Protein backbone atom coordinates (compact mmCIF):
# COMPACT_ATOMS: atom_id res chain seq x y z
CA UNK A 1 0.00 0.00 0.00
CA UNK A 2 2.07 2.90 -1.28
CA UNK A 3 1.02 6.49 -1.56
CA UNK A 4 1.11 8.04 -5.03
CA UNK A 5 4.11 10.34 -5.55
CA UNK A 6 3.38 13.90 -4.54
CA UNK A 7 3.77 16.62 -7.10
CA UNK A 8 5.94 19.41 -5.66
CA UNK A 9 4.24 22.78 -5.37
CA UNK A 10 5.53 26.20 -6.30
CA UNK A 11 6.85 28.10 -3.25
CA UNK A 12 5.38 31.36 -4.61
CA UNK A 13 1.80 30.48 -5.59
CA UNK A 14 1.28 26.86 -4.49
CA UNK A 15 0.47 25.49 -7.96
CA UNK A 16 2.05 22.21 -9.14
CA UNK A 17 5.56 22.79 -10.47
CA UNK A 18 6.48 22.63 -14.14
CA UNK A 19 9.50 20.52 -15.05
CA UNK A 20 11.18 23.29 -17.05
CA UNK A 21 10.70 25.89 -14.27
CA UNK A 22 11.27 23.72 -11.23
CA UNK A 23 10.99 24.43 -8.31
CA UNK A 24 8.53 27.03 -9.62
CA UNK A 25 5.40 26.58 -11.71
CA UNK A 26 6.34 29.22 -14.27
CA UNK A 27 8.95 31.73 -15.32
CA UNK A 28 6.80 34.44 -13.74
CA UNK A 29 7.01 32.86 -10.26
CA UNK A 30 10.76 32.35 -10.72
CA UNK A 31 11.10 36.06 -11.54
CA UNK A 32 8.97 37.02 -8.51
CA UNK A 33 11.32 34.97 -6.31
CA UNK A 34 14.42 36.56 -7.87
CA UNK A 35 12.92 40.01 -7.32
CA UNK A 36 12.40 39.18 -3.66
CA UNK A 37 16.08 38.25 -3.32
CA UNK A 38 17.18 41.47 -5.05
CA UNK A 39 14.90 43.65 -2.90
CA UNK A 40 16.17 42.14 0.35
CA UNK A 41 12.91 40.40 1.28
CA UNK A 42 14.84 37.16 1.81
CA UNK A 43 17.82 37.26 4.16
CA UNK A 44 20.26 34.88 5.74
CA UNK A 45 20.78 35.18 9.47
CA UNK A 46 24.31 35.99 10.49
CA UNK A 47 26.77 38.53 11.76
CA UNK A 48 26.23 42.13 10.64
CA UNK A 49 28.40 43.22 7.74
CA UNK A 50 31.55 45.14 8.58
CA UNK A 51 31.57 48.88 7.96
CA UNK A 52 34.41 51.33 7.27
CA UNK A 53 35.05 51.86 10.99
CA UNK A 54 35.49 48.12 11.44
CA UNK A 55 37.97 48.02 8.55
CA UNK A 56 40.05 50.76 10.20
CA UNK A 57 40.01 48.93 13.54
CA UNK A 58 41.11 45.70 11.86
CA UNK A 59 43.99 47.53 10.14
CA UNK A 60 45.13 49.03 13.46
CA UNK A 61 45.02 45.60 15.12
CA UNK A 62 47.10 44.06 12.31
CA UNK A 63 49.78 46.72 12.74
CA UNK A 64 50.22 45.86 16.43
Automatic annotation (TrEMBL):
SUPFAM superfamilies xrefs: Glucocorticoid receptor-like (DNA-binding domain)
Keyword flag Zinc: yes
What organism is listed for this UniProt entry? Acetobacter garciniae
Its family remark reads: Belongs to the DNA gyrase inhibitor YacG family.
Q: What does it do? A: Inhibits all the catalytic activities of DNA gyrase by preventing its interaction with DNA. Acts by binding directly to the C-terminal domain of GyrB, which probably disrupts DNA binding by the gyrase.
Q: What is the lineage of its organism?
A: Bacteria, Pseudomonadati, Pseudomonadota, Alphaproteobacteria, Acetobacterales
Q: Which UniProt keywords apply?
A: Metal-binding, Zinc
Identify the stretch(es) annotated as Disordered: 45-64
Report the co-factor binding details: Binds 1 zinc ion.
Q: Which InterPro entries match?
A: DNA_gyrase_inhibitor_YacG, Znf_NHR/GATA
- Gene3D superfamilies per the record? Erythroid Transcription Factor GATA-1, subunit A
Q: Under which name does UniProt file this protein?
A: DNA gyrase inhibitor YacG
Amino acid sequence: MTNPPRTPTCPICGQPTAHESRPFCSRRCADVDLGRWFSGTYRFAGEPALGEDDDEKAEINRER
